[in-house]
Amino acid sequence: MSAKKSNKSQTPLFGKGTGVAIVTPFLKDGNVDFKSLEKIVNHLIKGKVEYIVAMGTTGESVTLRKDEKAAVTKHIIKVSAGRVPIVLGIGGNNTAEVVHSLDSTDLAGITAILSVCPYYNRPNQEGLYQHFKAVAEASPLPVILYNVPGRTSCNLSDETTLRLAKDFNNIIGIKEASGNMIQIMNIIKNKPKNFLVISGDDQITLPIIACGGDGVISVVANAYPKDFSEMTRQALAGNFVEARKLHYKLISITNLLFADGSPAGVKAALEIMKLCSAYVRLPLVNINKSVQSTLANQMKNYR
Questions:
Q1: Is 146 marked active-site?
Q2: What pTM does this model have?
Q3: CA nearest 178: which of 148, 145, 214, 209?
Q4: Any catalytic annotation for residue 224?
Q5: Active-site entry in 133, 166, 175, 191
Q6: Distance, CA of 8 to CA of 10 (rounded, Å)
């Protein structure tokens, strides 16, 4: 399906609330742990998250083979059994290869695509626009842009985001992880009516929603889906007294989960919860013993 230029963004079928960038659990031998993956999917759905994002950064997609990506995605779809929408990460720094992946990937059971900004090549804003133009025109599903300059060394500006949002009716939102509140507020102020602005930073989800954002794609909600999704729902409903209580209840653990690398931090938490092991694939390694000890104590005292 080609995405024709339009002055209006299509009405999204989903996207408000809490999405979770699900981890990919591994066994000691490095293979994917599908039994633990099933437990985590059910844990998230029981915690009332609104959707699951497969093959994102938190899912260690860059260290998974193509066949592993397909198997993990298929398993998430099977276990979720239509109970929540599934978003699939398809992105990269080779535009032609991203387009090929969109054409060749089995997208049955997938609701939308999350596509990260090209990394390493450091394109200018016109290059970013042309990249996502090609993605939009190739994608048979709605596309959520993913701006995470801390990982890509490339910021998708508010001007380029708004240009894409207004020009392509199947670009339905952005996961914004720039941490730049001025940029994020400019997008919220000037976006098409139904374009989603989704927090990509757990720590500032509450202020982004307070400014008019639509929710979050979370790392922390892998471990604490019930409290994080409830915080998000309360904020979206304008109940900021209740939302703040949950925000500050979670904040110390949230900070610890990013203190020595992600997703190693949240995998350590999931191991403490007996949902999966903490194994990650190189070049990632497990969190250091000091952070591990502090995290265990914080989790023990969490109520």
A1: yes
A2: 0.94
A3: 148
A4: no
A5: 175
A6: 6
**Beta-carbon contacts of residue 100 (< 8 Å; ≥ 6 apart):** none
In single-letter form, the type of residue at position 136 comes to A
pLDDT tier, 7 (very low <50, low <70, confident <90, very high otherwise): very low
Which of the following CATH numbers is that of domain 17-239: 1.10.630.10, 3.20.20.70, 3.30.2310.40, 3.40.50.300? 3.20.20.70
Contact between residue 64 and residue 89 where contact means Cβ atoms under 8 Å apart: no
The pLDDT > 90 percentage for the chain reads 95
**Annotated domain spans of the chain:** 17-239
- pLDDT tens-digit map of 174-192: 999 999 999 999 999 999 9
Q: Give the Cα separation of 173 and 164 in Å (integer).
A: 10
> Tens of pLDDT along 245-278?
999 999 999 999 999 999 999 999 999 999 999 9
CB 173 within 8 A of CB 40: no
Q: Catalytic one among 146, 224, 267, 279?
A: 146
Distance from C-alpha of 202 to C-alpha of 32, rounded to nearest angstrom:
26
Model confidence at 14, pLDDT cuts 50, 70, 90, reads confident
Name the token pair of 119: 């990394």
State residue 9's pLDDT score: 38
